[in-house]
Each structure stands twice: as C-alpha cells, then as structure tokens.
Structure to design on (120 residues):
C-alpha cells in the first residue's frame, strides 16, 4: 500500500508519518509512505497512491484534492485543515475523511480504518 502525506510543516509531517507507521505496525498493514513538503512537489508527482493525506489547508489543499481525484479516482483522500470550511467541498470530491487540526493519533486510526474498508 502506498500512502502520501503532503504537509507544509516539517514537524507536522513527521508526526503524521510516525502515527501512520504506528497504525500500520499495530494493524499489520504493509505500507510505503512518501512525504511531500510542498503542494508543488505533490502536484508534480505522477505516481499512484492508495491513500493520500492532504494537509496543505485552505484552497491549496482543496485544489490538490481535486487534481488528485481527476488523475486517480481510486485514491482514498483525507483532507486535513485548520477550519471546517473545506469539509463539505471535500465530500463533494469523495474524500473519505476530513480531520480538523489539531491532529491526534485517534484521527489517524479513524481515517486509516475508513480508507482500508473502502479499499476492501
């Protein structure tokens, strides 16, 4: 399973990576994580992902989700933002979850569970 994390903050990206890897170890999910420090890096990447955490926030995060949905309709997208403003827009793109910051491990568990169930 390939998982992408697009997060502007290096500290937040590292915390997400640690939690996702912890989830994968706990639930025996083989996964390869790829972190993108900037939206432009993620946009330029043409590989496929099974799950993508898009944490750029605001219009940028929504734009990334829309781009990804157009190029890969099967990817399970999770939006992460500071406000609820883009939660409904994310659902229109068939994002499987929306995490309102601050992110906690329990949010990762919920979003990973949802993503894995949808892939089954």
């Amino acid at each position: 399973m390939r998982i992408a994390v697009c997060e502007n903050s290096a500290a937040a990206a590292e915390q997400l990576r640690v939690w996702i890897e912890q989830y994968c170890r706990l639930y025996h999910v083989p996964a390869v994580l790829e972190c993108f420090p900037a939206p432009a890096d993620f946009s330029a990447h043409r590989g496929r992902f099974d799950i993508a955490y898009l944490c750029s926030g605001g219009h940028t995060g929504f734009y990334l989700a829309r781009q990804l949905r157009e190029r890969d309709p099967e990817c399970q997208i999770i939006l992460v933002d500071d406000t609820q403003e883009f939660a409904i827009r994310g659902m229109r793109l068939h994002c499987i979850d929306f995490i309102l910051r601050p992110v906690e491990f329990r949010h990762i568990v919920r979003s990973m569970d949802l993503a894995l169930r949808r892939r089954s």
In short: The chain has a mean pLDDT of 93. The chain has one domain: 2-111.
